[in-house]
Give the backbone structure.
Amino acid sequence: MPTPDRTSLAEIVDAGRDLLELAGLDGLTMQAVATRVGVRAPSLYKRVSNRDALVALVVDATLRDLGGAADVAVADAGGDPRDRLRALAHALRAFAHHRPVGFRLVFAPTSDLHLDPDALRASSVAVVSAATDLAGEEHGLDAARTFTAWANGFVSMELSGAFRLGGDVDRAFDFGVEALVAAVAGVAPAPRT
Amino acid sequence: MPTPDRTSLAEIVDAGRDLLELAGLDGLTMQAVATRVGVRAPSLYKRVSNRDALVALVVDATLRDLGGAADVAVADAGGDPRDRLRALAHALRAFAHHRPVGFRLVFAPTSDLHLDPDALRASSVAVVSAATDLAGEEHGLDAARTFTAWANGFVSMELSGAFRLGGDVDRAFDFGVEALVAAVAGVAPAPRT
DNA sequence: ACCTGAACACCGTTCAAGT
DNA sequence: ACCTGAACACCGTTCAAGT
């Protein structure tokens, strides 16, 4: 007689995401996840093949959320591609502050976890679209990569506390947004105060 | 009667760096390091207080190397701050290709390892100097952060295989270098072909 | 003074036995 | 068909005992 399911893959992944933010990647153990979903560790292997696979699922879910946040930001930003890029940068930063550990895992995976190509594409479509509108068809992809690289790099460094030389980090972020928007548009940045 | 030392801190850190690149962070185990320096794992605790401390030393050494590579690149680049920034970007990328795992650990530390402030400052002085020459005293720090964030972000994404949408990655890198140099200089990028 | 074997706690994973 | 306890291999770390 089959026993009723006592948990589910979705519940396991959610527990993994919570633990990741609460206790770091080292704290995301099979035993901790199992306890959190009310089951013993060996039972997890009915739904995920091993810990690395679970981590990959956690990262995929995080990436998907990020793509959703990007879509929302763009929808709110209006039609000007400059405004869409600004909104995307701020959305990325807000997301990183909200899920710092997951964010780091998405952009600097420690081992070679194969991100879901669909989620990857979905998360980048908003930037590519805005960058193409701004830089033109021929340079759209290069421009999107330049912008994304800067935003990701800035936030990564902020999260790891690399900005220790003083100065206002918020101001540095705004400076960067405007510099990148201008660079992608192929014009000089607006005059600075 | 004191026994002669059978290893040293420097040897242990070197073994850690080798293992890091060879087998990843997970492969950097106390037992593997011990075997590599010809000693048993417990003996390592005479020189490092625990594994995290060893990882921190490995990261510090990597950061110091990166600072050295930056100094060399700048010395070879001549006096034009644009050329110095270009050289720094290429040096960073070359370093990352040479030590991918260590590089990731420096710029996206998984746990909260406290990088040596001296090494951090030394590694950034070359960028800050070039950026200040180019952007002016008032915006030098912001400009340096913008440039570093982009370079770090680009290389991180390249290492983690995020550039899967096709296109030439080398070309995207050059596009980015010129866009950032122009943005930092506060002028429009040179016309693109 | 450094090195070692033995030991402990903890984790990932497998598997036979339960229901 | 899912869940569990028991077991195994492996890792970080401590410590008493060797030299």
Remarks:
- The mean pLDDT of chain A is 92.
- Residues 1-6, 39-40, 42-43, 46 of chain A lie near DNA strand D (CB under 10 Å from a C1').
